[in-house]
Amino acid sequence: MRIFAAFFMMIASALAGFTLSQPAAAQDSELSSYKLGAGDTITIIVLGEDDLKREKVRLSDAGTVAFPILGEIKVRGMTVGGLRDHITNGLKGRYLVNPQVTVAIDEYRNFFVNGMVEKPGGYPYTPGLTVRKAISIAGGFKERASREKINVVREDDKSGTPKRVDLNSPVYPGDILTIEESFF
Fold first, then answer.
1. Do 120 and 98 reside in the same domain of the chain?
2. Do residue 101 and residue 118 come from a single domain?
3. Which uninterrupted H or E stretch holds 107?
4. Range of the domain at 46
5. Residue 24 above 50 pLDDT?
6. Structurally, how many domains does the chain consist of?
7. 11-31 residues labelled b (16+ CB within 10 A) or e (exposed)
8. pLDDT of residue 148
9. Are residues 17 and 69 in the same domain?
10. Residue 56 pLDDT > 90
C-alpha cells in the first residue's frame, strides 16, 4: 500500500509540474505583437505612484509620448510589453526600487475605407477586424461595388503599394481599404 501511495505521489507531483509549466508557455505565446503607432491612445500606470500615471494619452504624430523622469519616449513600433519594460528599466534604481508598470491600449488608431461603400471614411479599429467587417462598418457595399476588386495599403508598407485582398483578409490599424466599382 505504501509503494502505491509513493508511486501515486510521484505521478501527481510530475503532473502538477507539467500543468504549472504549461500556462507560462501559453502566456508567452499570447503576448501582444501589436506595434504601437501615431494615433493610438494608451494609459500608463506605475503602482503606488499616482504622479506618474498617464491616462488616455494619444501618441503624437511622431509616435512618441512624454513621461515624467524619462522625458519623451519614442514608442512607434514598440509592443505594449516592450514599452512597459522600457519604462520599468528607466525608473528602476533612478527613481524606484522595484517599479510595477502597466501599459494598456485604450483606443487603436483608425483604419480607412474608401471607394464603393455607403459611408467612406476613417473608423476606430477593433481587434479581429476583417475586410468583410470593415465594409459592414462603412455601411456595406454600394450597388455597383465589386466584391473581388478590393485593395489594401498597409500602414507599414513604405512603398504604399495596394495589394489585392479578399473579404476574409485581416485589417490592421492605419490600413486603407479601397473597394473598386464593378462594371457588370
1. no
2. no
3. strand 101-107
4. 41-107
5. no
6. 3
7. eeeeeeeeeeeeeeeeeeeee
8. 93
9. no
10. yes
Q: Contact, 124 vs 110, CB < 8 A? A: yes
* 115 lies in the same domain as 84: no
C-alpha cell at 141: 457595399
Q: Are residues 101 and 117 both part of a single domain?
A: no
> Quick one: 126 and 142 in the same domain?
yes
| Model confidence pLDDT, tens digit, residues 86-97 | 999 999 987 899
- DSSP-based helix, strand, coil % in the chain, nearest 5: 25, 35, 40
Per-residue pLDDT reduced to its tens digit, 107-162: 999 999 999 999 999 999 999 999 999 999 999 999 999 999 999 999 888 899 99
- How sure is the predictor about 6, in pLDDT bands with cuts at 50, 70 and 90? very low
Cα–Cα distance for residue pair 10/23, rounded to 1 Å: 21
Question: Quick count: other Cβ atoms within 10 Å of Cβ 132?
Answer: 15
Closest by CA to 116, choosing from 86, 92, 150, 85, is: 150
CA distance 39 to 27: 28
- CATH (domain of 76): 3.30.1950.10
What is the pTM (predicted TM-score) of this model?
Answer: 0.73
Query: CA 84 to CA 78: how far, in whole Å?
Result: 10
